[in-house]
Amino acid sequence: MSDYTISQIQPTDSRGLAQVDSLLEQEGIRRDANLDYICAMYDENYRVIATGSCFGNTLRCFAVSSSHQGEGLLNEIISYLIDVQYRRGNIHLFLYTKINSAKFFQDLGFHEIARVDGTLVFMENRRRGFSDYLSRLSQTKTAGKSAALVMNANPFTLGHQYLVEKAASECDTLHLFIVSEDASLIPFSVRKQLVTEGTAHLPNVICHDSGPYIISNATFPSYFLKDEEAVIKGHAKLDLAVFRKIADTLSITCRYVGEEPNSQVTGLYNQIMSEELPAAGIDCIIVPRKEFNGAPISASTVRQYIKERNFDALGKLVPDSTLNYFKSSAAAPVIERICNAENVVHY
Question: Per 3-state DSSP, what percentage of the chain is helix, strand, and coil (rounded to 5)?
C-alpha cells in the first residue's frame, strides 16, 4: 500500500474534476456521462495522480499518472471502489475495459463475459456468474423453432404487444427478455408485470429477466470510444456477442426487433444487428411499427399522456392491463415520478 490519500470527488469540486479530466485525457479517454461516484488519489502536493469511478454496479474511468506507473496505484483505486460498492450493497460487479487491459483485471479477480475484438471486454467479479445465468436459461429450452425478442417496455404499449404477437405467431417458442436494469422512469418490477399481463394470452411466450447481461444504453460505457457512432456500434456489437451465447444455449435461430424510423441511434443499432446476426446463423427480422392515426405508437407519447393524466388518449395506445394499472392507486408513485421528470421522451 502507498502512503497516498484516496477520497471521493464531489460534483461541485471543479478543480478536482479538471485534474481527473486531464488525467483521463492522458490515457486517451474522457469522463463518462454516467457516473455516480468518482474517487481520486492525491500526492503530497494535493495533485490527482490516479482516479476511478462507479456507475450503478459497474467500475469505470480508470487512469494513473504516467509519472507513477508501476507503483500498484491502480490496484489500490480498484480495491477502494470495490469497498465503496460493497458498502452500497453491490456485491456482483462489472467493468468494461480495453482489450490490452483485460489480463490486468483478470489478475484482480474479474472474469470475461464477452468481448468486441479490437475494442473492449465486458467482465464481472464472479467466476460462474454468466455461466450460471445461461444454465438457468437452459432449463426453459424447448423443441421446435425458438425466437427471441428483447424489450425495455417503458411502459408496455399496443406497439409492444403487436411485436410480441407477430413474433410468437411465427415460432414455436418466443423467449422474451425484459431489460431488468432500473434505468427507466418506470421500475423494472412494474415493466415486468405489464409485459407479463400483456402477453398472458400467448401460451408460447416465455418471459425472462435480462439480468445484468443485456446492456442498456444507460450503463454501456462511452468513455473510451471516440464518438457517438463508435459508442452505438460498440454497444450493439457487445450486445450481440452476449446474445449469441444466449442464443446458443436456447437454440434460438431468429431475433425480432421493432423498427425505429425516427431514431438514428436505433436505426444504426438495427443495421448492425441485421449484418452481424445472420453471420452467426440467426435471422434478424425488423418489424415495422404498429401505427395509430397514421403515427407509430411510441412509449414516449404514452409517458407524455401519463404525465398529463390523459387516460382517454392513453387507452388508445396501451393494452387494458397497462391502462388499468395506471388508473390504479398502485401506480401513484410511478405517475408522480413521471410527472416530476423534465423530459419523458428520451428515457
Answer: 40, 20, 35
